[in-house]
Design goal:
The complex is a heterodimer.
Chain A lengths: L9 E12 L2 E12 L3 E6 L5 H8 L7 E6 L2 E2 L5 H8 L2 E4 L11 H6 L16 H10 L15 H13 L5 E5 L7 H18 L2 E6 L2 H7 L2 E6 L2 E6 L1 H5 L4 H7 L2
Parallel strand pairs in A: 3-8, 3-9, 6-7, 7-8
Antiparallel strand pairs in A: 1-2, 1-4, 4-5, 9-10
Helix pairs in contact in A: 4-5, 5-6
Chain B lengths: L1 H31 L6 H40 L6 H39 L2 H7 L4 H40 L3 H11 L2 H27 L5 H35 L1
Classes of the chains: A alpha/beta, B mainly alpha.
Chain lengths: 251, 260
Amino acid sequence: MKEAMASEEIVIKIENLCKRFGNNEVLKGFNMVLKKGENLVVMGKSGSGKSVMIKCLVGLIGPDSGIIEVLGKEIDQLDQMELDELRSDIGFLFQGSALYDSMTVRENLEFPMRRHRKKFEGTTDTLPLVREALENVGLAHTMDLMPAELSGGMKRRVALARAIILKPKLILYDEPTSGLDPITAKEIIELMRSIQKKYGTSALIITHDVDCARVISERMILLVEGVNYAEGTYEELIRSQDPKVNAFFKK
Amino acid sequence: MDVKFNMVQKTKHFFEEIGDLSFFAARFFKQAVNPPFEFKELLRQCYQVGNRSLLLVMTTGFIIGLVLTLQTRPTLIEFGAVSWMPNMVGISIVREVGPVITALICSGKIASGFGAELGSMKVTEQIDAMEVSGTNPFKYLVVTRILAATLMLPLLVIFGDLIALYGSSLVEFFKGNVSFRLYFNKVFEALSFGDLIPATIKSFFFGFVIGLTGCYKGYKTGRGTAGVGIAANTAVVMASLLLFVVDFVAVFVSDIFYEL
């Protein structure tokens, strides 16, 4: 069922990433490579450093040491303008959707476009782009609603539409199904797959939802105590005899 | 030993907080003068700050004017100086009572609002989302709010002062049979630019302090919903305290100019 689209072109390369907060060493030399068109899932327990790692990728958190390359650019070598430019090629779906409360759905989707007008040269009317993004997630009718008027699943879908509005090459998903009921979670996973198919994006998915990982991953990394503990396809990992690996998959 | 340790910790925390706030203020000045400028958001914030506080400021001003006049009247009658009422009320409201009361009301309304709003945006990762989308959240959220509070507070003070004087004139009209025209003539005769200018300059600083502390507390909120409540609460306490410090400095400085 999974589309084997990955090429050899590298989209994300992380080498020996370390990050500590006070005495708490969260990442202790994490390594990772994401290839173009690939869906890579990083799994780990709460507090294992998954969200810190994904925030380092977009420059929200600075690493203590290590190299992070995204779309061929080393993150900590970029100035603010270059970082913003790079961010226009990255979609980010936040764990709690992170929709702006004081704006309508339409304004939420238009917000990323205000700084990246270059990408839409010749387009003065943003409405068709907003409508297209919302149609992709089946919520074109919610354009004038406020986030408070949406259900949890709808908020996540609007956030997904916002993540794809700039037509990114890479989408980062931070716990895309957390806090959702199984049916809505399945809908979100289907949407993620259809978006990847439509736009040919690469995706890095941070999750501890095994069902999500099983359906969407082409390759998985288990993050344990700040390092990549195991790596492989879902089938390979589920057959592992390692007790720490088994602990993730046993219900 | 514990008490001594706690005292040291609290003192250390106090100075750290002052240091952090100073860095935050320095960051504001740096970002406020560098493009791009968020004019649309600034106008929206000015409207929000002004519109949300106007009714409250006017109500409070009206009551302060009434109460100040009613409380002072018997004493002035006793000394045969009731005809000085408009002069006394006018000067005290314009120079001190109006700006301070308006600023305190606004610190409760605006600083807590900024603290809670930015705090909840931080906790729900909206600020991170803004940064990822290429917008500088400090410039968009903080600079606009501090500027709006700084610009709107003097206007609110003027409205508050006028309503307080109107309240006072009502008491004089009903109790002392003084016409509105006579009352306001005496008020404006008593006032000089030396009263108006320091009060107006002081109001800008009050607005800045309110915006700064509200945004500082909200922007630095710790994770979790409990942090939002703490941010709103401490923003009000800190802003109110700083208002009195600023007021003392302003009065002290203007006093030096009077003596010159």
